[in-house]
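Interim report to the steering committee. The following record documents the input for Threonyl and alanyl tRNA synthetase/DHHA1 domain protein (88 residues).
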Amino acid sequence: MPTFETEVADIRLHSQARGRSLWQLSLRESLFQPGDTGTLRATARSGASIEIAILAIEPDDEGTLWHNTEKPLLAGTTVTATITSPAK
């Protein structure tokens, strides 16, 4: 499984329905491609970590890849990204 370090560049709320939110994160550098799924792991200075699932990858008209998640991460957060299911 490909793994790489990067940083959250931007975040936006994609949608909300039935009490659930879908967030989109862009990364400074990404090896993800449309059709991939995977995870992002962020670790705080305290050592606590969170792992969130990447549900889908969506490019916009400018070529930015948006990584769909159910949990937000702040812009500037360093993450370890893992592609668990590459596009075929």
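Residues 3-85 form a domain with the Elongation Factor Tu (Ef-tu); domain 3 fold (CATH 2.40.30). The committee is asked to note this result when reviewing the revised timeline.
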